[in-house]
């Protein structure tokens, strides 16, 4: 049953990405492939970091959590999305829809803040290398992670509470491949300007705080790099941050385009593409970005494969 007595909708039909029959099967295999790469890549990184003691440092603790978040929210979305390619009607219950949306919001907000924590870690490593061990102590890392997931819970409650205030009268065809705010808002029969204001404020806080933290961290990092006299030292400092910068640009670029513009500027079909990028493509690319450009991860991979071969 829906959360409100005046609401008559007990389930939604997810329209999916496209209604063209000829594209259903190719898209199914395409996104199934994306999901397999996402699962293998993120669980692989989690396993490598867990098994190799030389990766048990703050930088990889945050990367471990980034991989966990990417794996989790992809798993909350893609399996249900794949069903829309093979079923005539991809039905999700009202409760299931709200649950999916809650976890989606939780992991998306958490990813924003884990990227901020990773930027702060790089700032300390480059700008205050002699104090790194003290500054990034286990207690500080735990505090940062509690902040990351605490903000994730705050964001999930704010966005889901906003959705639960909506009433759905008759139409239950959701123009999306997942339960997402703007399509639900369009479908409701009591949506108001205030609902949009709430989501805009909550999203602005999430993206704003994260981006300010990242920009400040990299501002200090660039200042320190320019004071390094040797070309080799500058190159090493830049390479330390390059993977994180790529991940930040991909994630926040698509997120800002999707949420910080009015719905009239971006039609829902284009909004689906933006959501697709940061919910499916970015979690798939992150393990590749951090492993292909990282000597420590490559070394850990060789050691782990060597153990498997010997055994």
Give the overall form.
globular
Strand content: under 5%
Query: Quick one: how many beta strands?
Result: 3
Helix count from the secondary structure assignment: 10
- What is the ordering of alpha helices and beta strands? EHHEHHHEHHHHH
Helical content class: over 70%
Largest sheet: 3 strands, mixed
Q: Average the pLDDT over all residues and give the rounded result.
A: 86
Uncertain runs? 1-5
Strand order of the largest sheet: 2-1-3
Radius of gyration, in Å, reads 21 Å
Write the layout of secondary structure elements.
Blueprint lengths: L10 E4 L6 H31 L6 H29 L3 E4 H34 L4 H4 L2 H27 L8 E2 L6 H7 L5 H34 L4 H29 L8 H25 L2 H16 L1
Parallel strand pairs: 1-3
Antiparallel strand pairs: 1-2
Helix pairs in contact: 1-2, 1-9, 1-10, 2-3, 2-9, 3-5, 3-7, 3-8, 5-7, 7-8, 8-9
General description of the model:
With 311 residues, this protein is mainly alpha-helical. It has ten helices and three strands, in the order βααβαααβααααα. It has a three-stranded mixed β-sheet. Helix 3 (94-127) packs antiparallel against helix 5 (138-164). Residues 1-5 have low confidence and may be disordered.
Question: What descriptors fit this protein?
Answer:
311 residues, mainly alpha, 76% helix, globular
Please provide a brief summary of the model:
This protein is mainly α and 311 residues long.
